[in-house]
Amino acid sequence: MESSNRFFKAPASSFLLLGPRGTGKSTWLRQHWPRSLVLDLLDPPTARSLQARPERLGELIDARPDVEVVVIDEVQRVPALLDVVHQRIEASPSPRRFVLTGSSARKLRRGATNLLAGRLARADMHPFMAAELGEAFQLKKALQIGLVPLVWAAPDAPTTLAAYASFYLREEVQAEALVRNVGAFARFLEAISFSHGGVLNLAEVARECEVGRKTVEGYLEILEDLMLAFRVPVFTRRARRQLVAHEKFYFFDTGIYRSLRPAGPLDRPEELEGHALEGMVAQHLRAWIGYRGGRDRLYYWRTRTGAEIDFIVYGTDSFAAFEIKRSSRVSPKDLRALKAFREDYPEARVALLYMGRDALMIDGIPVMGCDAFLRQLHPGAGLPV
Q1: pTM
Q2: CA distance linking residue 241 with residue 226, whole number of Å
Q3: Residue 233: DSSP 8-state
Q4: Residues 312-348 pLDDT 10s
Q5: Would you state the pLDDT for residue 87?
Q6: Across the chain, which distance is largest between two alpha carbons, in Å?
Q7: CA 1 to CA 5: how far, in whole Å?
Q8: C-beta of residue 26 within 8 angstroms of C-beta of residue 110
Q9: Are 38 and 63 in contact (CB under 8 A)?
Q10: Torsion angle, CA of 341/345/348/352, rounded to 10 degrees?
């Protein structure tokens, strides 16, 4: 996949590029700045050398006066380098451009505070969007293996996907000593996979993996720090009905959910597919919001009486509600929640996304094929509804 097809646009200044492993951060940077000075902290000798003497970074930079861009890959491995970068940016009247990448925000929190306060912009890299892949996008395939570039482009995608979770356990969780009991964390990953696309109940997850609630809260924080998961809050603005209070939970990519979610004879395929489809739309809307500069926010809506809208996009120039149905057929009862939401918020655009191909209009509500919607979703344009 050529980087020119990615929707990611680099900030004009030095920046910190965050994103899970395998989303294409390093590939994009190599292709856009092939002559940059690159320090790969996944290389053990490089990481050891800079960890022992962080000031050596300045010496390496000074030895290359011709270099305009300095890339530090996986900077969370040696967070002390943030202080050196900070000094360089502050000291020079025309500093070089620094591009730092990271797949974990945990160790960057303290060191990055000053850098992010106007000195380093933050940017995020997401899995592929359907429109980035163009004709190569296949919804059925994406629902099985997800859209992480590392997995999508792999010769044996299922094997690569299966290794992804264990890779994180080994390379991130164990290497950075984020948890003491890796076995308990592995049980947690399996238990919380049942929450993907659902209302998050931490007490229930704690019972499933046989650890305390506080431990589960810490594990969930690790997932979010590694950018492997995110939560979607309830839309409560100008609420006219009683709403639930709990957030919904999603893994950052549908393929990761499928790899972690155990399946057996008692699991209905349509339930797994339904959560996978909902997650696919969630990660696309999240990427669309992110690549547009974060002007909008992603929510869901659920009343205490059970009416639910899967996603609300709300921002300065967007207000839209989407209900997701795995079925290839739509009946008027599938539109009840959207009608209720439209009554409360007549300013909002509403649409139902389903697995059929035909574009329909039922009771004044657009019904779109999910495949067509995802292919049309582009951060350079508004929501295709």
Answers
A1: 0.93
A2: 36
A3: -
A4: 999 988 999 999 999 999 988 999 999 999 999 999 9
A5: 84
A6: 69
A7: 7
A8: no
A9: no
A10: 10
Q: Are strands 365-369 and 360-362 parallel, antiparallel or unpaired?
A: antiparallel
Q: Residue type for 196, please? A: H
Residue 196 has, within 13 A of its CA and on its CB side, a CA count of: 34
d(CA 55, CA 34) in angstroms, rounded, equals 25
Distance between CA atoms of 249 and 154, rounded to whole angstroms? 27
Check residue 378 and give its pLDDT: 96
Tokens found for residue 311: 């996603």
- What gap in Å lies between CA 364 and CA 224, rounded to an integer? 39
Residue type, 367: V
Beta strands in the chain (DSSP E): 15-18, 37-40, 69-73, 97-102, 121-124, 198-199, 229-232, 248-251, 296-302, 308-315, 319-324, 349-354, 360-362, 365-369
What residues of the chain score a pLDDT lower than 50? 1-3
Q: Closest Cα partner for 178 from 210, 147, 219, 232?
A: 219
Q: Are 299 and 233 in contact (CB under 8 A)?
A: yes
Rounded Cα distance between 98 and 36, Å, is 10
pLDDT 10s digits, 73-120: 999 889 889 888 888 888 766 668 999 999 887 777 655 555 555 578
CA distance 80 to 20: 21
- The residue type at 91: A
- For 108-152, what is the HEC assignment? HHHHHHHHHCCCCEEEECCCCCHHHHHHHCCHHHHHHHCCCHHHH
Tokens for 177? 């000593």
Instruction: Please report the pLDDT score of residue 1 as a whole number.
Output: 47
β partners of residue 367 = 352, 360
Query: Domains of the chain (ranges plus CATH)?
Result: 3-124 (3.40.50.300), 130-376 (no CATH)
User: Could you give the strand order of the β-sheet that contains 15-18, starting from the edge strand earlier in sequence?
Assistant: 37-40, 69-73, 97-102, 15-18, 121-124
Per-residue b/e over 43-73, b at no fewer than 16 CB within 10 Å? eeebbebbeeebeebeeebeeeeebebbbbb
- C-alpha distances (whole Å) from 179 to each of 34, 158, 185 are 37, 27, 7
* Per-residue pLDDT, 317: 86
